[in-house]
Amino acid sequence: MTTDALVPPTTKSQALRSYDVADFPALTGLEEEWRFTPLKRMRGLASAADGAAGKPVTVEAVDLPAGVTLRSVPAEEAERVLVPFDRVSALAYGAATEVSLVEIAPEAQVARPALVRVIGPGIDSSSYARTLVRVGRFAEATLVLEQLGSATLADNVEVIVGDGAKLTLVTIAEWDAGAVQAQHVKLRVGRDAKVVHVQVALGGDLVRQYTSVEYTARGGEAELYGLYFADAGQHLEHRQLVDHSVPDCRSYVGYRGALQGQSSHTVWVGDVLIQAAATGTDTYEINRNLILTDGARADSVPNLEIETGEVAGAGHASATGRFDDEQLFYLMARGIPEEEARKLVVRGFFAELLNKIPLEELRTRLGDAIEARLVKAGA
């Protein structure tokens, strides 16, 4: 390891990237990238020096329409998209011996959403996983990656969206109560390609998800949406890095979260980097948090790093507030019971993001899960 690895980078583009866990210093919790994360609750994922994996996750093809395939391939044979830039991601990369490869054929117009389910093996030992999604040129598809059960899991999801292709990717972390997950999702967007990523986090004890985007040529578009709901004691953390390094690309980031219960904690950190060569960039990011009870905490940090003045647009916003009693009063004044009124306000807060999911059955299930949390808390 060179001494340069110990010097904090001046820009996101200079951050250390490596497949070798040893290149990353041991985590202390004082690092900027980890200062919000309770490392002691990660059950060794943050401190392990090698990937002595326990039981692997189970990957199931629930519904694969024509044009979509799923198979397992040896890690050494799979294309590399992500170069890890944190210790846990590098650990997962080295420890995953098999890769779940989802392929969407070039020019395929997939008729209905494909559904792949990941089931955790339990929390007793650490698990590591790697998923690679390859979308062929000019294909159009929707893919849902659903994670259920319980696990102590570090995993990487790598997505290649070929030139002219369009992908809607929905990832759902609906873990059981004791699960711990540290995940990196990497999106590589080709020329005139578009990816819409909807990230949902509801379950687990601690879930930390990092999403990064890179563009390979002009005309790429990335829309990142997130929906999260933290209950008592939960830690849900979401970070994004959108790296505009080529001209005339677009990005939009919109995340919304709700919190209730003692010691519920959410973190959103949105980083957008516009490099000097990325003229004509159009980008915007926004995060909104709704605090429903005392004892909840939401941290929200938007960042823009701009190296050129020749951009089409660049902006960010963040807002965190308590439940709007005026909205509640308005509904109750029209004869709606208080419990039902609270459900309507929260569902309305999430409605825009739920509507980004192109599967009615899934939208309904997630909406019901949100309402069940409100009922559980006595809202």
From TrEMBL:
Belongs to the iron-sulfur cluster assembly SufBD family. GO terms for biological process: iron-sulfur cluster assembly. It comes from the Bacteria. This is Fe-S cluster assembly protein SufD. Residues 125-349 form the SUF system FeS cluster assembly SufBD core domain. SUPFAM superfamilies: Stabilizer of iron transporter SufD.
